[in-house]
Amino acid sequence: MPDRIVRAMDPEGRVRILAACTTDTVERCRLLHKMNPTPCAALGRLLTGAALMSCTLKNPTDALTLQIRCDGPIGGMIAVADAEAAVRGYAYRSDFDLPLNGRGKFDVAGAVGKGTLHVLKDLGLKEPYIGSVDLISGEIAEDLTWYYASSEQTPTVMILGVLIGPEGRVLQAGGLFIQLMPQVGESLVEQLEAIIAGLPAMTAMLAQGLSPEEIILSRFGGIHAGILDTRPVTYRCNCSLERMERNLVSLGRKELAELAEGPAGIELQCHFCSRKYQFSIQSVKALMEAAKQP
Ligand SMILES: [Zn+2]
Predict the structure, then answer these.
(1) Is the pLDDT of residue 36 over 90?
(2) What mean pLDDT is predicted for residues 1-7?
(3) Distance 225 CA to ligand 1 centre (A)
(4) How far apart are CA 168 and CA 185, in angstroms?
(5) Where does 48-203 show beta strands of DSSP type E?
(6) How far apart are CA 141 and CA 24, in angstroms?
(7) What is the tens place of the pLDDT at every residue in 158-169?
(8) Residue 136: what are its φ and ψ, rounded to 5°?
(9) What is the DSSP letter of 148?
(10) Average pLDDT rounded to a whole number, residues 9-30
(11) Least packed by Cβ within 10 Å: which of 15, 41, 48, 111?
């Protein structure tokens, strides 16, 4: 089933529901970064969360970044999504693994530990919007739900899941985003709470072969949710030689000179897609000319 996000709403426009299938996107991320299962599950949840949240961006040039800084073995994670639900991300460390937790699931909370979630929204304004909350569980979905409650004051429930097979391959990944508009009645809230409490795991529904559309229609039929549209989700990095050159120039001449001391020039690797960029001594010298700082 191709990766996508399906948007739906009830007829009165009081509840927004997004359902995502991100299996190929998370698998591509795992292969690019050669990730072990637990860090892959953690980053896969964050990437899926970023893809879902990107559907709330209004302009085609808007983008959002989810950053987790934490004291667990993963060290931290970044996920970036643009308004087209193209995502990219990386974990600071992904060469470790942990035993399954008491519920037989990947110990994402153990990999993350304590820390902070930062949400940066680049909305084309002079300064990006930044919201930060302390992690409440490190399980990612609960932390994003908590972010909405505390920073955006929009009642939102995020459900995220990544299922990884015995050979380490991502078998299923996806999520749900359920958001209430302001001033909805108590009875609708109770109805939604009952639906959410009765939901099987997202990856279990995907593994049954249910599409995001079918998940919405079968589970949220009680509130008459109707499908609005569908958009593809992809893993896409926007790195380029020009971008890497700009990064090098921004280091300043002194730092560049130190980096270029070896005979082979400089090799940079993109954190998001692992692509390598080579800079010869000659090209570093040309960049040093361009660098304004001493
Ligand atoms: Zn890249």
Answers:
(1) yes
(2) 96
(3) 38
(4) 45
(5) 63-70, 76-82, 86-91, 115-122, 129-134, 156-164, 170-180
(6) 20
(7) 999 999 999 999
(8) -100, -25
(9) I
(10) 96
(11) 15
In 3-state terms, the chain is what percent helix, strand and coil (to 5)? 35, 30, 35
Contacts of 158 (CB under 8 A, 6+ apart): 49, 52, 141, 142, 144, 145, 148, 175, 176, 177
Q: Identify whether residues 119 and 247 lie together within a single domain.
A: no
Distance 269 CA to ligand 1 centre (A): 8
Q: How far is the CA of 135 from the centre of ligand 1 (A)?
A: 28
- 216 and 270 share one domain: no
Residue 264 sits in which domain range?
A: 241-290
Tell me the CA–centroid distance for residue 247 and ligand 1, in Å: 13
Q: How far is the CA of 282 from the centre of ligand 1 (A)?
A: 23
**Tokens for 179?**
């958001």
178 and 280 share a domain? no
Same domain, residue pair 216 and 249: no
Q: What is the DSSP letter of 75?
A: -
What CATH number should be reported for the domain holding residue 266?
3.90.1280.10
The closest of 230, 205, 199 to 23, measured between CA atoms, is 205
Residues, the chain: 294
> Which amino acid is present at 88?
R
Q: Which two tokens stand for residue 246?
A: 């700009």
Distance 237 CA to ligand 1 centre (A): 5
pLDDT value at residue 293:
59
C-alpha 81 to ligand 1 mean position (Å): 14
